[in-house]
Amino acid sequence: KEICSISAFKKLCQLFNNFTDYHTPLFDEDGDSFSIENTFRGADWRGKDCNDLNPKIYPGRLTSSDAVVDSNCNGIVGIDPASNKSYEELWCNGTMAMGTILLGDSAGAHFHIPPSWLTAKELNTDTYSDLLTILENELDWPMLSFVTGFQTTEKWKKDIQGPVDSTYLKMRTLNRCNHRDYQNIGVNGARSSSMKELVKFLARHRLLDKPVMATIELLGNDVCSGHEDTSHMTTPEEYYNNMHYVFEYLDSALPVGSVVFATGLVDGRILYDTLHSNIHPIGSTRGDVTYSDFYDYLNCLEISPCFGWMNSNETWRNLTSDRALELTQTMEKLIKETKYQNITVLYMPVPLHQVFDTWKGDKADLIEPVDGFHPSQITNALVANVTWQYIRDTYPDIVPPENPYNELIQKKFGDQGGY
Amino acid sequence: IDGGTKCAGCVVIVALVEQLSFIYNETVADSLARFCSYLPPEIDIACQFVIKTYGPSIIDLLEDNETPDTVCYGIEFCKKYDKSKKMCHLFPLPPSHFKDETERVTRLVTKAKGKSSSPFP
To answer: What secondary structure does DSSP assign to B72-99, as a single string?
Structure first.
């Protein structure tokens, strides 16, 4: 604080605060909340800026022309000589292009610690080579997540493997005008009370940008903490008020026509039921540490992300699930009771449950091996599919139509500037 | 409690060093150097600092067949603030050695301090 009061450091402090407190990019020359750097809440989290010196150029911007400049960074720019109209006008206008947004917790940001980091027999000079990059992303992998994933795991194959699928990729396949139009506002530890602040870090202008399909998922932190008492759990009344506030804010901030899908909480008993007798990576050399030991150790130190579910005591696990169910019912009730002026808010059952119910293999493959808490890469891809299927089946009118010009766009603009 | 994340971080790193020594059948000192060599150059200086400061104690305690948990209590990354509470441990404790955990931890700290050639911060 003292350093920040010195004028020479003010700008630096402000940049750092943007990153730590506001979850916006650390490196963002023009202040439009989009960056040309990948990490530090940059392009891995929000579509890559294609001009970081002009605040009027960023992904998701509503434009009717882009004859000379690609103002929404979707890679579609220029004039068709035959019609003398811009390609954006010909191939994107009126195609119901929409951005994809996640508001959520570490599951939405895709928290992952490479298991090789804790497996002695796999350690070598390459093991920690991505350590700093991974820390710059807060141990999250939004670029591989179920809502905003856009990469393959090829680049990261020693740290993470598995398929990648996401709502964003589905939206982009439907309409290539949606290229780069994604934002992941997932924050480790986020719960309904903190979401009231986090929602304000969305970079979406109500009048200047395209509408969005947003997903709100807060899977467990409202009932999870490292502490052994229920006073740290959100009550149904608090939850109702917090989420009502979030939806009202979105109603006032998002472009008209935006859709918000909100889920409830998971039943985290699946974690202990699946993993308790399995060996944790840190115990893999001698087979001497089970997940049950690991959970109890974190609880003993009071550093567990979820005392209630990551617990060898069944009473605690049941009690935590009871409150989670109450909060899920509260979310359903809130959505049923309330109508919003500019946006549509819809309830979506937690897709994770369907993924676990239908998975034919070892359920342990669906859970992150190091933390024994988060959904794995496989789960992320499956959740994206289940979510999309649910949206198509339940709300067919919500899914925008396929852009008939997709092929022409691909032929003319290739990878549209990539990521 | 008992050092929280600092304690857990210590236990994980000491465990990896101990397991490397087991896997490669080498001394703890060599495993400690091996572990540091695996880290990116940007944090190598931090690793060298840890070796200088805590290396002798970690080596002595692990070579005395202490577990990663007790080593970290020994070098005071884990601290037992409430003596009435049980010691937090990730790895199994050797039961015959653990009649009085508090006494054992105190003894370890004293031993680690005595054997270390570097001052504890």
So the answer is: HHHTTSS----TTSPPP-SSPP-GGG-S
Which is nearest to A114 in space by CA: A159, A157, A158, A163?
Answer: A159
What pLDDT shows up at residue A1? 65
List, as one string, the DSSP characters of A182-219.
Answer: EEEEE-TT--HHHHHHHGGG----TTTB--EEEEEE--
Nearest Cα to Cα of residue A118 among A282, A244, A279, A349:
A282
Report the interhelical angle of B44-63 vs B4-23 (nearest 10°).
70
Rg (CA), chain A: 22
Structure tokens at A347: 């309830």
| Beta partners for residue A186, in sequence order | A104
> How large is the average pLDDT for residues A106-127?
97
Any bridge partners for residue A86, and if so which?
A: A79
- Cβ–Cβ < 8 Å for A170, A191: no
Cβ–Cβ contact B32 with A under 8 A = no
- Which residue in A122, A135, A300, A307 has the most chain B C-beta atoms within 10 A of its own C-beta, making it the best mutation to test that interface? A300
- Calpha distance A147→A214 (Å, rounded): 9
Tokens of A413: 């603009």
Distance from CA of B116 to the nearest CA of A (A): 26
Spatial neighbors of B71 by CB under 8 A, at least 6 apart, are: B10, B14, B57, B58, B61, B62, B108
User: Are B22 and A303 inside 8 Å of each other by CB?
Assistant: no
Residue B98: the pLDDT is: 52
